[in-house]
């Protein structure tokens, strides 16, 4: 693979940067050759088969557990997945949109929506991040053809400008409260529409967003990368997710320390 990765020839235009920063999200079509993306699909499937946590029977699952099968930090389990997660071309696009020179990986997430899986509640990604300042960008990468019926994302356009709206774990409560915020502000809700392997969807870590249920008989296969600017510092955790994450990922770091550890590595680009 070249030094610039999967997307060596693709740059971000000034117009795209401005649109991302205004709307809080940006969908890019046909950025990567589809075959290059789907080449990673078997490796991701193997990680899910080996490392997805057991879940209770469907009737006993809460809304979050009904939404998807999930694996965190798949890059630590398989070198083939690591190649995708640390692709410099993808990181370069994310860095250009954020306007930063260096990025770190917060985590990757494999998010599979099983046939019949429920919707993903309204939420903000950065509610999980214990950083100061707390900024970040999320890259959503479809590994298969994703129709709207399979569970595409939707965004409340411009909602990232409100910043943190609550110390929430993704849940029925975030769905209720953030949904009320979207309605009260009269924000436009925009769906990404169908996505193909090779399409990329970026969004600001504070944008209020969710995803549709999977109304098909096919698995929705997606991997998500969360980046943050190098140089942010650890903040005292203000919700249970942040507290659990610090204990699991960076137990030796304390508030004020640089957010830098083995599981928050720099992503060169």
From TrEMBL:
Q: Name one GO molecular function term.
A: 2-oxoglutarate-dependent dioxygenase activity
Signal peptide feature range:
none
Q: SUPFAM superfamilies given for it?
A: Clavaminate synthase-like
- InterPro entries, from UniProt? Phytyl_CoA_dOase-like
* Keywords from the UniProt entry: Dioxygenase, Oxidoreductase
Family matches, as PANTHER family: PHYTANOYL-COA DIOXYGENASE, PHYTANOYL-COA DIOXYGENASE DOMAIN CONTAINING 1
Q: What is this protein called?
A: Phytanoyl-CoA dioxygenase family protein
Species annotation: Polyangium spumosum
């Amino acid at each position: 693979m070249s030094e610039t990765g999967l997307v060596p020839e693709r740059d971000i235009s000034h117009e795209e940067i401005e649109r991302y920063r205004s709307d809080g999200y940006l969908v890019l079509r046909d950025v990567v050759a589809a075959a290059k993306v789907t080449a990673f699909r078997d490796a991701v499937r193997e990680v899910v088969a080996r490392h997805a946590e057991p879940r209770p029977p469907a009737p006993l699952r809460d809304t979050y557990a009904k939404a998807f099968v999930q694996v965190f930090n798949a890059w630590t389990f398989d070198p083939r997945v690591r190649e995708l997660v640390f692709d410099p071309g993808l990181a370069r696009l994310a860095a250009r949109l954020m306007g930063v020179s260096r990025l770190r990986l917060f985590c990757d997430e494999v998010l599979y929506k099983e046939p019949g899986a429920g919707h993903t509640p309204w939420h903000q990604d950065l509610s999980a991040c214990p950083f100061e300042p707390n900024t970040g960008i999320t890259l959503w990468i479809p590994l298969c053809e994703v129709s709207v019926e399979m569970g595409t994302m939707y965004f409340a356009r411009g909602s990232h400008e409100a910043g943190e709206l609550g110390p929430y774990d993704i849940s029925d409560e975030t769905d209720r409260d953030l949904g009320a915020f979207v309605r009260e502000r009269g924000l436009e809700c925009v769906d990404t529409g169908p996505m193909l392997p090779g399409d990329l969807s970026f969004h600001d870590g504070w944008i209020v967003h969710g995803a549709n249920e999977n109304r098909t008989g096919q698995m929705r296969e997606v991997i998500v990368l969360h980046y943050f600017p190098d140089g942010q510092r650890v903040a005292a955790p203000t919700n249970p997710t942040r507290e659990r994450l610090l204990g699991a990922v960076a137990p030796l770091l304390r508030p004020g320390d640089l957010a830098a550890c083995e599981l928050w590595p720099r992503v060169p680009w």
